[in-house]
Amino acid sequence: MKKMIALALACALSATLLAGCAMDDPQSSGASESTSGVGSGKREVNICSWGEYIDTSLIAQFEEETGIKVNYQTTDSNETLYNLLETTGWSGFDVVVPSDYMISQLIEEGRLAELNYDNIPNFAKIDDRFKNLSYDPENKYTVPYTWGTLGIIYNTQRVTEPVTWDLMFDPDHAGDVLMIRNSRDAFGIALMSLGYSVNTTNEEEIRQAYERVAQANKDGVYQAFVMDEVFQLMESGSAAASTYYAGDYLSMLEANPDLAYAVPESGSNWFVDAMCVLKDAKNKDEAEEWINFLCSTEASLANMDYIWYASPNKEALEKYPEYYEETYGEPLDEELYEIMAAPQGVLDRCEAYLVLPAETRTLYNDLWTQLGVAG
Amino acid sequence: MNLGSRPGVLGRVFTALVFLFLYLPIFLLIIFSFNAGSSSAVWQGFSLRWYEELFQDRLIINGVYTTLVVSLLATAIATVAGTFAAIGFYNMRRRWREPLLVVNNIPMINADIVTGVSLCLFFVASFGAWNGFVTWMENTYRLTAPRLELGFVTLLIAHVSFNIPYVVLAIMPKLRQMDKNLIDAAQDLGCTWMQAFWKVVVPEIKPGIVNGMLIAFTMSVDDFVISYFTAGPKTSTLAMVIYSMTKKRVNPKINAVSTLLFGAVLLLLIIVNVRQVRQEKAAKRK
Amino acid sequence: MRNKLSWFAVPYVVWMALFTVAPVVMVVIYAFTTSTGGFTLDNFARMGDFAVVFARSFQMALIATLICLLIGYPLSYFMAKEGPSFQKVATVLIMLPMWMNFLLRTYAWVSILENNGLLNRLFAAIGIIDLGNLINGGLNSLCAWLNSGVLDWLNGMLGTEFVLNTARATDMTYFRMLYTQGAVVLGMVYNYLPFMVLPIYSVIVKLDNSLLEAARDLGASSSRVFRKVIFPLSLPGVLSGVTMVFVPSVSTFAISKMLGGGTKLLLGDLIELQFLGGAYNPYLGSAISLVMMVIVVVCMYVMNRFGEGEEQAVML
Questions:
Q1: How far is CA C94 from CA A366, B58, B153, C197, in A?
Q2: At A180, is the secondary structure helix, strand, or coil?
Q3: Which residue among B61, B220, B230, B253 has its CA within the 20 to 30 Å range from the CA of A107?
Q4: A1 interfacial to chain C (CB closer than 8 Å)
Q5: Hey, are the CB atoms on A365 and C279 less than 8 Å from each other?
Q6: Which CATH architecture has domain A148-269+347-371?
């Protein structure tokens, strides 16, 4: 171990070059502890959301209007969000934006604070079909933020056959497919391709789904497991097919017109992501103010235009084609609008994720680890 | 040292190729920071737009700021603490010194991820216990105390912890080179041990201290893994910001921030060297 | 205590107890705990499942270390042979990238290695990809010819079913480089090469002149001087270089995530997955960390013993 001294010696050589240079003057940095300060009297709100999931100018606008400092962080999936919170002791964030099934789990574990809807008058603007959903039946904890479908994004130059879930496991496209990097969606895709329910708790079915993904991974079907890396890889044409969310497809389409999106006929998943406040949140009032701000019609329209995810704000959703035409001077393609805001016919063949019992979740975790191990 | 003849053409070509390998990716990174388009592979004309956007990106700017503050503070603390520790170790009996030096080496031998994970577990568990205690106090005695969470302070503690061992290691050899009787002599001549420390020991080991400081700073700036596990959800160093950015689209703002960093370091080195050359010339004239 | 100066270490000893020893103890405790808080050995019982990952990580880290050594040793040697001002500049040039964060250095390679990245564009422009297609096509027809001729006859004779692959891609528009294990090894080599060069160089440059002169005076050829004197004496540098490249390589997760695509986990990925990744299980994560820690420490201990033996042999 003492051989490590060699590094010190090596650095000594360059130190002779730097000798006499007092470059790290500790005095100069003494006054900067404010970064750690909890902000005495200064209002702030700490948000953890997904990447590419907000029109960033809205943050600045909110800060300007309210004087509340927004600390905006991102993570990439419900599972990583949960693990981040669990690993760091459920402190630090005020607002999180998990999906339906994760919300149920957080409510079940008593991690969320009940909201004071008096502080969120804009909640009235939310379409009734997005209220009192099964993850929050009495609507005490959540305000929906976006909704949409999970589907297959593919490059029409390279995928010419009809698109079904089997495409995600097809050795003919070895090295060209991107698999999603979270256990719920990845195993969900495999379950759907096998004709099982995404909410099955039958261990045998889940293991079959695992085998399907693992076999494809072994066959070299997957170029990579991705979350938001998918943008770069699909836009540049590096990959031919991936499973991701409708809104993100529309963002990619702006950069690469060869891309197409399909919700397989056999069905898919539809989701609602909703804003909630953590139980130990230090800035609950600010958090509610933020939530109220984001569900205003103006903010919802701006957001929809930027991230292409459908808003649950009824007025905004209906007005969006009009807003688009005003902004860009050309009508919004009906087909694109229907991809963003899936019509009832599409939703009818989709299934929402429900929270799984603890033992099934453990199984998912173990299989997910096993997947990368087998490689 | 004289290794015989200078390297031949082949040797020089080899050296040049290795340096090309080391620097070509960095130069490409720099070139594409001036690209007008958002691609990192297709040149679409010269522009400074990514620098403009960089300075408006609060996440990156905060990241740079946090990195600088934590590196400088951790270097300063580790240099002072490490100097004292090294002197203390050196003056200990072997029986005490050897095991303590082994413990000192743990953060260097351990993989970064193990150090990071272990600190994270430790912080979260002890903060959990403390916060539970505070809640209990509040409920039973109506007394309160601040609750603790991962953040800048834990990040700083982690950096100090992995920096001190390098400082100690850099200073120990200088202490060994020092004449053992110097301290005794100073004390015999009427120095208090405090004076002996400031007037005798510190000047002797100054090169070691400077080395240690430099290594500590380098390690702090280069670190990602340990910060990732100890900074908590709200605080982000530049490396953490970049890590989350690389999960999305290729983003030339990253190229721009790299260019600025590279330029800053290069400028610093040039200034130091020019100053040194001048000093040497001045010394020669005398 | 020899004198009062030894008390200077007390604050740091307390610090170490808190922030070095206690955290390691935490890892040990977690490794033997179930999610409900009871004692268990299950986390270690599962280690067999992860043998593949251990093997993969050690293999890739070893390859990276070997490449670093093969590049780093000659480089240090040639550097040491140059004049002092060249040496100064070269040392600084090797240190300089370390002041940019290693994630930035890794990121630089993403856009180079991508399917539509700089390297593939270069290859396409100078016709290397067409050449690759041509070679594959040639190999395909050669294999087809062998299949229908020699192998058919051989299979008929022996009753076997040997068939050569004739389906090599001939319509490649790029080489797949990003998201391969090769890319991960490249990332390790690129990031950790300075850790190999600096220790070796600093040992070679400090070698005792008189030893070399003595060897030459005694008639040893320069290659013999290198083999018998310079190389053995530089071994301590090699050993510390090897450790400093191997340990971060075997435990990395950022490099494998950015350049490897996550389809084949390395040890670092596996540990990160249990804490901040997609499969929360800090108990298992701690157990894996602990096992990795023990293996690394044992490897280094053995290597250093071996190294010290060499050193003494040289002295004799």
A1: 43, 32, 32, 8
A2: strand
A3: B230
A4: yes
A5: yes
A6: 3-Layer(aba) Sandwich (3.40)
d(CA A340, CA A239): 23
Domain definitions of chain A by residue range: 2-145+272-341, 148-269+347-371
Confidence of residue A27 (pLDDT cuts 50, 70, 90): very low
The answer, for C211 touching chain B at a CB cutoff of 8 Å, is no
pLDDT in tens, B221-231: 989 999 999 99
The DSSP-derived string for A97-150 is --BHHHHHHHHHTT-BPPP-GGG-GGGGGB-GGGSS-TTSTT-SSEEEEEEEEE
Rounded to whole angstroms, the Cα distance separating C62 from C53 reads 14
Judge whether C140 and C168 are in contact, CB under 8 Å.
yes
Prediction ipTM score: 0.88
Instruction: Please state at what angle helix C231-250 crosses helix A5-18, rounded to 10 degrees.
Output: 100
Q: Residue A121 in contact with residue A143, Cβ under 8 Å?
A: no
Number of domains in chain B: 1
Counting residues of chain B whose pLDDT is more than 90, the rounded percentage is: 48
Q: Distance between CA C134 and CA C291 in Å, rounded?
A: 48
Cβ-nearest to B108 among A4, A26, A93: A4
The three-class DSSP label of residue C96 is helix
Backbone CA torsion sign across C254, C260, C263, C264: negative
Interface contact flag, B25 C110, Cβ < 8 Å? no
What is the topology classification, in CATH, of domain A2-145+272-341?
D-Maltodextrin-Binding Protein; domain 2 (3.40.190)
Do residue C81 and residue B7 have CB atoms under 8 angstroms apart?
A: yes
- Burial (CB count <10 Å: 0-12, 13-18, 19+), residue A248: buried
Distance of CA B209 to the CA centre of its chain: 14
Q: Which CATH number fits domain C32-114+177-315: 3.30.70.20, 1.10.3720.10, 1.10.260.40, 3.20.20.120?
A: 1.10.3720.10
Q: Contact B3/C190, CB-based, under 8 Å?
A: no
Token pair, residue C55, equals: 């093997």
Query: Which of C263, C266, C286, C305 best tests the A interface by mutation, with the highest count of A CBs <10 A?
Result: C263
3-state secondary structure (DSSP) of residue C72 = helix
Nearest CA in chain C to A366: C279
Q: Look at residue A296 in the predicted model and tell me its pLDDT.
A: 95
C-chain residue closest to A77, CA distance: C278
> Which residue in chain C has the smallest CA separation from A222?
C263
**Which residue among B103, B119, B250 places its CB closest to the CB of C16?**
B103
Query: Which neighbouring-strand residues pair with A268?
Result: A350
Average pLDDT over residues A364-373: 93
3-state secondary structure of A22: coil
Alpha carbon separation from B16 to A235, B19, B270, C93 (Å, rounded): 37, 5, 21, 12
**Encoded tokens for B245:** 């950015």
Inter-residue contact A352 to A134 (CB < 8 Å): yes
pLDDT per residue as tens digits for the range C194-228: 999 999 998 898 888 788 888 888 888 888 888 88
**∠ at Cα B282 (B281, B283), nearest 5°?**
90
Taking contacts as CB-CB distances below 8 angstroms, the residues of chain C near A225 are 261-263
Closest CA to A173 of A214, A212, A220: A220
Contacts of A158 in chain C (CB under 8 A): none
pTM for this predicted structure: 0.89
Domain that holds residue B111: 73-285
- Residue-wise pLDDT for A201-250, tens only, equals 999 999 999 999 999 999 999 999 999 999 989 998 889 999 999 999 99
* CA pseudo-torsion sign B252, B254, B257, B258: negative
End-to-end CA distance of chain B: 29
Residue C86 amino acid letter:
F
